[in-house]
Amino acid sequence: MNIKEAVKQKELFTGGHRACAGCGAAIVARQVLMAAGPNTVVSNATGCLEVVSTIFPYTAWNVPFIHSAFENAAATISGAEALYQSWRRQGKYDKKVNFIAFGGDGGTYDIGLQSLSGAMERGHNILYVCYNNEAYMNTGVQRSGATPKGADTTTAPVGKVKKGKEQYRKDLTAIMVAHGIPYAAQAIVGNWRDLTSKVEKALSIEGPKFINVFQPCRLGWSYKPELTCEIGRMAVDTCAWPIYEVVNGQYKITKPREKKPIADWLKLQGRFQHLFKPENKALLDDIQHAADRNWEELLKKEAPEKSEK
Q1: How confident is the model at residue 304 (pLDDT cuts 50, 70, 90)?
Q2: CA distance 2 to 21
Q3: Domain residue spans in the chain?
Q4: CATH match for 3-301 among 3.10.450.50, 3.90.1150.10, 3.40.50.970, 3.40.50.280
Q5: Per-residue pLDDT tens for 57-79?
Q6: CB-based burial of residue 261 (10 Å sphere; 0-12 exposed, 13-18 middle, 19+ buried)?
Q7: What is the pTM of this model?
């Protein structure tokens, strides 16, 4: 993307919405649409992004927008795409249109997983973007399938008996790759060039695509609003959230220049402050070992670069 040309375009996701200061979801929507362009139809599951951007009678969306229920954004955008394909076959419409669904981790990892899986399996020419803030932020910071182990949430709280969520998060990106789709990727808030490039690449590929965008939430994670992008980048540097893409089964991983301890990322967030008490050292060590193990397993999936003869 040519950023100088991109910033001259009409804003497709405008300011003036009700998102929290430092909200990463608004950044995701703005940058995805900047890469997609105006010939785009959006389906948005109920959640933070939908609530803050479509409070009647106002909207932050300057593209056709469909509000879906919590669980069916992927099905909704599939239906729109199917109608478009019918119109093309009938000669009623010939312009290229991008079909993009947005959903939070609650509406993607959990409640919307069946709808998402069906859309991927059927092969619709759509892009699904998960803005992943690792909990049900819109309804009170309840834990989700994307919440990492040790995080303090309202339904997995820190107390005398338990130290936050006890389970590791599920690897939804791997689940999408297992569907055999032509493009899947992980990205972050805090690296606009990587995110917009992945959106552009995804939209250039025919078939179902999925991008899982790591999105810090200053409300649920408890940090200063101005640190949103820094926390996103730190997740990559500590391998708490690796960024990579999988094109037709081939992995391409973005490696940090220097792999840092995961504590550097955890200490920036209030939801993990209990991990730094002496009595929780074993849990902190377990989280570090899991991050190291997951990173090594991911690296094994990338094919070695061919040396020049």
Answers
A1: confident
A2: 27
A3: 3-301
A4: 3.40.50.970
A5: 999 999 999 999 999 999 999 99
A6: middle
A7: 0.96
